[in-house]
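User: Here's a chain of 267 residues. Predict its fold as tokens.
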Amino acid sequence: MSSSAAANALNAVSATHLVRVPVTTVWTGPGSPRPVDGPAVADEPDVAAWLAALDTHAADDESGRGRLGLHGRVESQLLAGEPVEVTETDESGAWSHVVAPWQLSPEDARGYPGWVRSAHLSPVTDDVVQGPVPTLDPADPREGGATHPAVAEARRHLGLPYLWSGVSPLGFDCSGLVLHTWRLLGVVVARDAYAQAEFASPVELDAVQAGDLYFFARPGRRIHHVGIVVRPGRMVHASETGGVLVEEDLPADRVATLVAAGRLPMP
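Assistant: Prediction complete.
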């Protein structure tokens, strides 16, 4: 997709519903939420209370009740005003399967798929306006010394705790940070790190510039991590292993798994 086409996609999508709550979580299925996830799936979700509940189980592994337990349960998140197409509902009507056109995915040409609470959606009407309106000016880095607006935006969230599949300033995962930043620029990009690598224009590792992306993969595996380049050898990223959004020179384990770099469209 060209940069102009990507930017125009924000306002040229097929949608039957809009997200009506500040943040709704996209689940792998209606049975995915755990009891601890109750605040996230309430008719009026309280994401701050949900994250606080997860953090009372911070030591739990992926089978537990903490943030790591979201693996295999959560796909993404959607924000207020984000358009979706409802493709089906479960028997109770409490859950809707949606595709989200502001989050590109190789899994579905219409957008990123998953299940959300039906109560978190409103039908599209003339009185309901889709959003959020992009607010990041690509000509203004907003921070002294920043050479790219994506770097400046990412730095605003340093220290934020990592959230698997998070796409909002309440919590990001690595690709969610990229999605959030380019959305503020008015550009639709892919949701997941491996798909962002396919979406981006390739850049030689020795030719990266601020605002490019570093991609990481283990031998024989697909790309699992992405970071925003600050300068060659340094990036800002949402680190699950570190637990927070951090800016750092590439440590040895990242150098060992660095496989590619890419450049996303700008408006």
